Amino acid sequence: FSFTDADAVSLYLCNYTNVSNNSISSTLSSGYGLRLDTVNHTVIYSNVIDQIGGTGLYMISADDVTFNSNTITNSLSRGVDFSSSSNISFFDNYIDSNDQVNFIADTITNLNVSRNNFSNSFNSYGIAFVSVTNGTFYSNNILNSSNNGIYGTGASTNLSLINNTISDSFLGYC
Known about the structure:
mainly beta, twelve-stranded parallel β-sheet, eight-stranded parallel β-sheet
């Protein structure tokens, strides 16, 4: 499928859902490419989210969600924004050329971010996390962030940052 314009795909109160092989774009100045709100047991696989006027991928109040092999590019806000969720796996994704942070996780329990490529975060961090408990950031490539490649704050606990490559960013880890 191909979806165009504000909140092109929005899932609310959905369980056991699979969103795969879609092309999502927006010509409007705000909104989300893919919005997930109060979803459980969901797989987001092999989607292309491009030219979004707001945030490419937004998720809140979710549990047991897997993101695999997606491409998120050219958002005028954040590439990926997760909050108040648990048991999240994010791997083998390509996140590039977003105007703000490429990936932010806020108040997440059990987060695995592995084998992703994050590049060209123009006005912020490659990866940022706030109040993450039990987080693993493994074997990610972070290139050309205008600020830290990886930035963490806000009472985050039990984190593992292993084998990540950061280059051409203002600073490495903070």
